[in-house]
Design brief:
Helix content is about 65%, strand content about 5%. With about 400 residues, the chain is α+β, with helices and mostly antiparallel strands. The protein has a domain of about 200 residues: MetI-like (MetI-like fold, Orthogonal Bundle), CATH 1.10.3720.10. The strands form three sheets. The chain has a four-stranded antiparallel beta sheet with strand order 1-2-3-8. A two-stranded antiparallel sheet has the order 4-5. Strand 2 and strand 3 form a beta hairpin. Helix 2 runs antiparallel to helix 10, helix 5 packs antiparallel against helix 6 and helix 9 runs antiparallel to helix 11. The chain is globular. The protein starts with about 30 loop residues before the first helix and ends with a helix.
Length: about 400
């Protein structure tokens, strides 16, 4: 007799039994790490939003209670004060917005000048400290240890008060090559462009572009044939020679405005104020001492096998440093070098201590005191320094990526 009783879980057609589906073990909301972290982030954003909202509303309420107006309409009002150094036309009838532009240009001027000079001096001292010559090495080490351990503000005071302010008065100026140096600055002949000078400027632009193409061609030629080309001297000859030829061809369309002593001061020429000189010297010397250590660390990071291989190939120490050591060391040098550039730009705000008309002195100083628009002025000043730092970082990051790709 056959049994009609089927086994539990067996299909009616006699197939194999199907396994039971495992129950879903979904964690509770508080035990789910992703959901819990998302909730905490939302709560944090809400708290921060309420915090800043309360600050803004409280500030606006207090300003309204004190009768202080807000907004940027003050930028179109007449400034009514002079500025000792202006790179563009400015008068006392100009607006407060123009004072912002003047301060910006003066800040960028001293920052760019300081970065260029500090880079050259820093690389020189960094390489000199690793020199086999005992005297050169000790001089570089002494320079680095002295100037990087003295506060920057004291160095600015030294150059301004102890050096430049002790120079003679205009009537007793030190004269050299048609220029005059006194306690009011360095007065040099000012070049005045005449009709036809545009062709000289165009020749300079063409020479710069031609030098770039020449460098690319020389690198490709060296990669394919192994033959070197004197890129540096060829570029210098092109950039200097072509504009000079066009300058002579156009009949030398430039004259010099020579300074002359009239009364108690000089008239004519170009005056470089002592505040700019002191600030530039201090920023350059101070920052270069840190760049020198960065360069030294980058060079020491290159494997000795690289220099030994270059020596075995018969390369001189100069060519080894230029073609083998420095290109590889740049991968280590560029990131901290970016930080030094940013520090130099931000440290230029110390110019207000000696009266150099930078952004902090002119806009966040005089303009703020006259208008009382503290929030707007400080916000614009902070935004500008942030923008300058971001632009510098973007450029240096691009250059760092380019060097990394070149080294692969």
């Amino acid at each position: 007799m056959s049994s009609n009783i089927s086994n539990p879980g067996q299909k009616p057609d006699g197939g194999s039994p199907q396994p039971k589906a495992a129950p879903e073990n979904r964690p509770k909301f508080w035990n789910d790490p992703q959901k819990r972290s998302l909730l905490f982030q939302v709560l944090l954003l809400a708290v921060l939003g309420m915090f800043f909202y309360s600050i803004v509303t409280t500030t606006l309420t207090n300003l309204e209670r004190l009768g202080v107006t807000t907004g940027f309409d003050f930028l179109f009002q007449e400034a009514g004060f002079g500025i000792s150094q202006t790179l563009i036309e400015y008068t006392e009838e100009s607006t407060y917005g123009m004072t912002f532009v003047i301060g910006l240009l003066n800040t960028v001027l001293v920052a760019v000048m300081g970065i260029i000079a500090a880079t050259i001096l820093g690389f020189t001292m960094g390489v000199a400290r690793l020199s086999d010559n005992w005297l050169i090495s000790k001089i570089a080490a002494t320079y680095i240890e002295i100037f990087r351990n003295i506060p920057l503000l004291l160095q600015i005071f030294f150059w301004y008060f102890a050096v430049l302010r002790t120079l003679p008065h205009p009537r007793q100026s030190m004269e050299f090559l048609g220029s005059f140096l006194n306690n009011r600055g360095l007065i040099i002949p000012s070049p005045v462009a005449e009709d036809g000078f545009g062709i000289v400027f165009a020749a300079f632009i063409v020479a710069c572009i031609g030098s770039w193409f020449l460098a690319r061609w020389a690198h490709k030629r060296q990669d394919s044939t192994g033959q070197q080309f004197p890129i540096f001297w060829a570029s210098v000859g092109l950039i200097v020679g072509l504009p000079l030829l066009m300058f002579l061809f156009a009949g030398m369309p430039m004259s010099l405005d020579h300074p002359e002593l009239k009364g108690f001061n000089f008239r004519g020429g170009l005056t470089i104020i002592p505040e700019l000189i002191a600030l530039w010297l201090a920023l350059t010397i101070y920052t270069a001492s840190f760049i020198a250590e960065t360069v030294r660390a980058g060079i020491l990071a290159v494997s000795h096998g690289q220099t030994e291989a270059a020596s075995a190939l018969g390369l001189s120490k100069g060519k080894t440093l230029r073609f083998v050591t420095i290109p590889q060391a740049m991968r280590v040098i560029i990131p901290p070098l970016t930080s030094q550039y940013l520090n130099l730009t931000k440290n230029s705000s110390l110019a207000t201590a000696i009266g150099y008309p930078d952004l902090v002195n002119v806009f966040a100083g005089t303009t703020l005191n006259q208008t009382g628009q503290a929030i707007e002025v400080i916000a614009m000043t902070m935004a500008l320094y942030l923008t300058l730092s971001l632009v510098t970082s973007l450029f240096m990051n691009w250059y760092n990526a380019r060097m990394q790709l070149t080294e692969r």
